[in-house]
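During the second year of the project, the team shifted from modelling isolated chains to modelling whole assemblies. The rationale, set out in the original proposal, was that interfaces cannot be judged from single-chain predictions alone. As a representative example for this report, we include one of the complexes processed in the last quarter. Its constituent sequences, exactly as entered into the pipeline, are reproduced here:
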Amino acid sequence: MAGRSVKVAAQDGQIVQQPPADDSPLAVRGLTVSYGDKPAIFSVDAVVPPESMMAIVGPNGAGKSTLLKAVLGIVEPLSGSVSVYGEPLAKVQDRVAYVPQRASVDWDFPTRVIDVVLMGLYRELGLLGWVTGRHRKTAKACLERVGMAEFAGRQIGQLSGGQQQRVFLARALAQDADFYLLDEPFAGVDAATEKAIIDVLKSLKADKKTVVCVHHDLATVSDYFDHVLLINVRKIADGPVATTFTAENLQRTYGGRLATTHIDELRLPAG
Amino acid sequence: MWTTFLDALLLQAGYNAALVAIGAALLGIAAGTSGTFLFLRKRALVSDAIAHATLPGIGLAFILMVALGGDGRDLAGLMLGSALTAAAGLLLVEWTARETRLSEDAAIGAVLSVFFGFGIVLLTFIQTMSSGRQAGLDGLLLGSTAGMLFQDGIIIAIGGALSVVAVYVLRRPMTLVGFDAEFAEAAGVNVRHVDLAIMGLVLGVTVIGLKIVGLILIVAMLIIPAVAARFWTERTEFVVLGAGLIGGASGYIGAALSASAPALPTGPIIVLVCALLFGLSLLFAPIRGVLASVVRHRRFQIRVHRRQGLLALVHGEAIHDRMTLAVLRRDGLIRADGVATDSGRALAAKALLDERRWEIVRELHFADGVKASLDGLTPIEEVLTRDELAEIDKRLGPPVVVGG
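Output from the structure prediction step:
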């Protein structure tokens, strides 16, 4: 494998040489997804470095969630390829955990908090495996990590938005994956939940896991993440926050939609 | 009639009655458990499309069997035919909803009526066939148990058992897809296959239910038990169990009832018993029943009024709200003329103290996201430990004399 390189079509049509990234949690090449005739994302190339915490940032309708869903096989891409740890997703499914947007769920479903977390263990349980005390203990421990242990017996719809988000994170923790993908985990949650979630995510990183979040709050990108992917249908830039999350790149991502004063408030290094 | 009903319940009302009662109970269990997942996937209407799409299959199977020189009324043959056209209808609905911009309910409406219409045309044609006059195929519309054979019962028993086993094996993926399809897909569950499995189960139950409840009423047996069971529990596995129980009981009791009088058609009676159990669940279930939530709401309302009244007393404000006055009077906190009693004054002082404690608690826990229990209506001693209370009282400073 040494010295192998693949030809990749970059967005502007140039052919660039790019080393294969077999150990990276995620390598996306020329990924295009379209609902109808209008591409939601167009020819996106990106690599997520191992053990990184990456924010996917872009304006509304930029295709952030779509990118995540295409990576996870929830929507089918029109073209391009996705490899997870150098393999197609189906082969390494058990190394990946996903926290969807809260809106994707039926909140009146007959299920309790602990049952939702146990869903994270379904892959391990298979079709017929019995739920034992060990599984319940694991689920309880995951709830403990997000500060929701005392709510284990509640029906899921009786929780506040932030609490629901934490339960979802606990379910992903139960999956015991290496690579965590979260869709807007901080959207509409209270300050305490935001802190609880970011603490868990940082502990994941400390455990050498990789975390990717769709993120909408520009003010916290530098505090929470070490890598950033800026997209607006096309990829604008990606790389370490320090060098990529610049005023210039933000201006290119958001166009006129982001007032200059807003960018100034972020106190970014000059682009 | 009541003695016959009791006999029928004890399977002592004759061979046919016993056969029908057992068959209907098994069918009810199968329909209740399978239908639960269709209901939880919020696709209850699909069962309607499936059921109506069985009719042309029944007609075609009859014509084919007669043409081949066999008995057109053979139940196994009719079931096979109905399963085939029902599957065709189902796939057509699924394909239309997936590939065109039509919503699923529109696709269901279109497929349902076209297939049913075609089925009626076939049945009318069969009436003109020499062997068709006594076919009694219209009995499969609303069920007809009069001539039920032992082998028909065997088919129902085997089909019912298979569908219950399938529900057990597939319960986890079906739950996952019903609750959160996106997560399921990301976790490697093929959502489309699970959906097809759910609908396949429903199709199977519909087909085995043709003889007893008929294709029009089977929808009730699929959906009502699940909806009724939902009132009793917040857990998926218990909804499934409860739906099986309610479905089975309706089948058994309904069949026994219809056996106890000549003019009671089996299928419709089963459905009515099922609806009765639904009504009872809706009213009396302790978890989500209407009465329970009325009582809960009323209790909460009384707590709010009581607290507002006490706070008004301590601030020396006049109380005009009738319900507040009634609650305070009932609890002996004010006299008939509205003046606070001794116990009223004591509780009012306590209410004020608690209010100030709550204020501090809210400040301290401002960012905790546990605001739900900081409403001030739960007794503060239940939310906080004695040490925490002492800590808060320290911040309150020395007691102040309040008016009174």
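Chain A is about 30% helix and 25% strand. The longest strand of chain A covers residues 38-48.
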